[in-house]
Design brief:
- The structure is a single chain.
- The protein is mainly α.
- Helix content is 81%, strand content 0%.
- Helix 7 packs antiparallel against helix 8.
- The longest helix has 25 residues.
């Protein structure tokens, strides 16, 4: 019982750290949660991805409520992109389940490395502030890829959704972030159903990380606003790249 309690405390503590860093870097906690579970806690890759995806639903609800209250979410955009994104999440989850755990770990390592590079590039690209949303068909098609990565890797998919909306569809960056946060819960729910049916979700992991990430993200948003986010994002990208390469090698 003592060891179990100690392990749970480790999970909650990890969640607090993930929440803090994620809130400053402006990205969902799944990109850090999964490597933390695999590399630090020694959790099976499929269980880590499944549990992360369910945790994302819990944690995204908090930010979504704030964005909806501030009327930053474009509901028309979210409802148009989400069906394709949700379908991608279901397909991604089915692919992950069908593969051996070692292969899943390698795929996640590759995906994490790609995400870190995307984050690094985005840090130095000035966001668009368009007034009219463009390229709807391409945006809808690209959303399937965002959903696929969410279902396969156990992440919210915001790292792909935001640049798709901002750089491809000319959605203002604040609206893109808010709309992505709103969509994440629905996207993660779609993929989670597949993992829940296969009994791959560990409820202890979900509860532990949620208990840590929610206050961690809140504290981060309130106390770390003065830190230049560009430097944090560069550091965060390097951490993700390191974790990705460790999983690959």
């Amino acid at each position: 019982m003592y060891l179990d309690a100690l392990k749970f405390l480790e999970i909650v503590s990890g969640g607090i750290g993930i929440g803090l860093v994620s809130s400053v870097a402006g990205i969902g906690g799944g990109t850090l949660m999964v490597p933390f579970m695999i590399l630090i806690l020694g959790i099976d890759a499929k269980v880590a991805i499944a549990s992360s995806l369910l945790t994302v639903i819990v944690t995204s609800t908090t930010s979504s409520a704030v964005y909806l209250k501030e009327r930053l979410v474009n509901l028309k955009l979210a409802l148009t992109l989400e069906p394709t994104t949700a379908l991608g999440a279901i397909v991604g989850a089915l692919i992950t389940i069908s593969l051996p755990s070692m292969t899943v770990k390698k795929i996640f390592g590759l995906g994490l490395s790609i995400i870190s590079i995307i984050m690094l590039v985005r840090t130095f690209i000035r966001p668009k502030e368009g007034k009219e949303i463009r390229n709807w068909p391409f945006g809808i098609a690209s959303s399937f890829i965002a959903g696929l990565s969410s279902g396969m890797l156990g992440i919210g998919g915001g790292v792909l959704k935001v640049p798709i909306m901002n750089l491809i569809m000319d959605v203002p960056i604040k609206t893109a972030v808010a709309t992505s946060s709103f969509m994440i819960g629905f996207t993660a729910s779609s993929g989670s159903i597949v993992y829940i049916l296969r009994q791959l979700v560990d409820p202890i992991l979900v509860v532990g990380f949620a208990l840590g990430i929610i206050p961690g993200a809140t504290i981060g948003a309130k106390t770390l606003k003065r830190i230049k986010s560009k430097y944090i994002k560069v550091l965060f990208s390097m951490i993700l790249l390191y974790a990705g390469l460790r999983l690959l090698l």
